[in-house]
Known about the structure:
Strands 5, 6, 12, 13, 14, 15, 16, 17 and 20 form a 9-stranded mixed β-sheet that branches. Strands 1, 2, 8, 9, 10, 11, 18 and 19 form an 8-stranded mixed β-sheet that branches. Helix 2 (about 35-45) runs parallel beside helix 6, helix 2 runs parallel beside helix 10 (about 320-340) and helix 10 packs antiparallel against helix 11. This protein folds into 2 domains: about 15-200 and about 290-420, FAD/NAD(P)-binding domain; about 200-280, D-Amino Acid Oxidase, subunit A, domain 2 (D-Amino Acid Oxidase, Chain A, domain 2), CATH 3.30.9.10. The chain has 13 helices and 20 strands. The chain is about 35% helix and about 30% strand. By secondary structure, it is α+β, with helices and mostly antiparallel strands. The chain has helices at about 15-20, 35-45, 60, 75-85, 85-90, 130-140, 190, 250-255, 260-270, 320-340, 345-375, 380-395, 395-410; strands at about 20-30, 50-55, 70-75, 95, 100-105, 110-115, 125-130, 145-150, 155-160, 165-170, 175-180, 195-215, 220-225, 230-235, 240-250, 280, 285-295, 300, 300-305, 310. The two termini are about 25 Å apart.
Amino acid sequence: MTRSSAPTRPGADPQRADRAQTSRADVAIIGGGLVGLTTAVGLAQQGLSVCVVDRQPLPATLDPAFDGRATAVAHASKLLFEALDLWPAMDAHAQPILEIRVSDGPSLMHLHFDHDDLGDGPLGFLVENRYLRQAMADKVAGLDAVEVVAPEAVETIERSEAGARVALASGRVIEAALVLACDGRGSATRSRAGIDIMRWSYDQMGIVATIHHELPHAGIAHERFLPDGPFAILPLRGNRSSLVWTVPTAKEPAIMGLGPRGFEAEVRRRVGDFLGQVTVEERRWSYPLSLHLADRITDTRLALVGDAAHGIHPIAGQGFNLGLRDVAALIEVIVDARRLGLDIGSAEVLGRYARWRRADTVVLAAVTDGLNRLFSNDVTPVRLARDIGLAAVDRIGPLKTFFMRQARGSIGNRPRLLDGQAL
Length: 423
């Protein structure tokens, strides 16, 4: 449910009434984005009461102009959405990824992944963020155990061994056993907790746009490595694709400043003619690219989830899936603790979450960072070495299978939700 104002007595001071309002929830989630809402749904379905606080009202986040990105949903993430009964609302907008073709500029060497080589469904799915958000908002609206308080700002968060108190700008106070920071890369909740991050900028911007094309894409995702950075053509429903064009930060203003015709000409030059005639939707977005890892992802009655805990380069399309692995692990840890009668916000319970997620996060951050550094240059010896590497991997069946299963999220110590199992 969404927030509504409480009635007051005639002549009463509404602000004073708000200041006196205190409510209780098992879990307070700061941040109502994709990760925050997925977590809220999963916890509420297991009988926990959840309060989600966000600066943006949910309807504003559903506007197509709010977020133009499309997200790669790995096979394991799709199983999580199925287990939470979110996938049916997403399925009609989800484009299966049947193949991935990786190439290095004009080189004839390439790497080709085909879902037929695994024989158990698509490699993943492309879903526009607006449809992910709509499915989550609709699900939350039907859950009595979830309250969304938005638009609202957090004033202070007090945490102790006894519990947590989240004071809002309106004067309302939320008491909870656990606070989850789901408020993104610039997490104010993380900063309030005094948790430092290791961070560096790639000095790159990701430009996002949607193209319409004459010929079908056949469910094939293309990742082309150019000297300035990756250029991805990602299939959407219909004869449409999402572009993620990585450019140096210094070049971004000139590219974003191009008129519709100029921008379309630059896109056509990079896409080529394999999709036939290409037109570009006028609206485009750009986002700075960086890497960060929190020094720790838990503190007293606090857990960091998704981008609040880590942010990686989008080169492999795994950032959101990494966050969903946080979500699945955290829900399992909390639900298991609740069933045993344990304090869900205790150091022991949060310690299990931290240990479970640390290695996966560090390894994937290192891999994406290394790939971006390897391919975002045009040094001849390096270019020759990586082209040979691409061709070698393409010819080693077991190695290709490993990479495909890794991209699908089908290896490692997975939470039950990522296998589609009920908790």
